[in-house]
Task: structure prediction
Amino acid sequence: MVAREDLAKYLYCSAIFEEEVAKAYQKVLEKVSEREVAYLLEYIAKDSFKHAAAFKALAARLTHQTDRCDCGEMLGEAWVKTVEEAKRYAAREDEVTLSELEGILQEFESYEGYAGEEYLTILYTEVVKLLTNEYNFDLEDYKTVLEWIIEDEKRHIQILAFIKSRIAEQKAA
Result:
């Protein structure tokens, strides 16, 4: 069983992950000229900012301690690499061409896959066990929120695939 403080740190790191990915989406949508694509990226960015807020709320429910921790040490190299890559996109200042966007979308798909398959599955399982068994918290509301986040991550992958198909159509035209 994961300790309450460790789970709160995990949630903190999950919030950081979501925020950095959201900032990357935000910057890319500002730099892409195709408005349809920009609006779809904005949809994902807004979801990711909401996910970060939900993780922070759950962490606050678990503990009042909001100390920073070494997320890289806690969650590993994949987390570090993904966050660094997201920060690189968030710092971008030049326009994004449709050709470049295809490669960027591949990266974004890996973010969504990591989020959906890796940390959220683990997080959901541990939160459910900890809150139910150890602390007798009323879990239903947060359980529902975590389920929504997992569903959102799956939808994000679908939206990215849709954007890629739209780009392919535009390039073929």
In short: Residues 4-172 form a domain with the Ferritin fold (CATH 1.20.1260.10). Helices lie at 4-31, 35-62, 71-75, 77-90, 98-134, 140-172.
